[in-house]
Amino acid sequence: MLTDEVLQYIDRSVLCWLATVDGSGAPNVSPKEVFCAYGVSTVLVANIASPQSDRNLRGNPQVCLSFVDVFVQKGYKLKGTAEVVRPGDRRYPDLEAPLLSLTQGMFPIHSIFVVQVQTVEPIVAPSYRLKPGTTEATQIAGAMQTYGVQQSADQPQ
After folding, report:
1. Pairing with 120, which of 19, 35, 82, 137 sits 20 to 30 Å away (CA)?
2. What is the homologous superfamily of the domain 4-147 according to CATH?
């Protein structure tokens, strides 16, 4: 399910986006900063400041989790179900450990959203299909110009 390529996108993503739905069917999308793959079909997301996501998951476990590399403008959309695991749960210490290694204690983790991935779909910017000659290199160059980013001397060309 989580192939090596998907795992690479998860590892290099700074943020991911978690979509949930509230009791009236209204969508909610919020950025998540602390997350990691956990096995081949699970993603752990730290609930640092997400009371709306927490409420929504109690009523509807269906989620969509997206990772996008803003430079190459590609990524993955993972759909599945999420369970909220709280500190009193016997599984909590094992699930919290990889997230704590990412935060180094900088953020409080109120609970953990354990996402069981059911489907994985690529996300690809329309430019790749609609603009002839679009490559990852041209996308990176364009994004670097747009965001005013310069490649450092120690980065490979």
Report:
1. 137
2. Electron Transport, Fmn-binding Protein; Chain A (2.30.110.10)
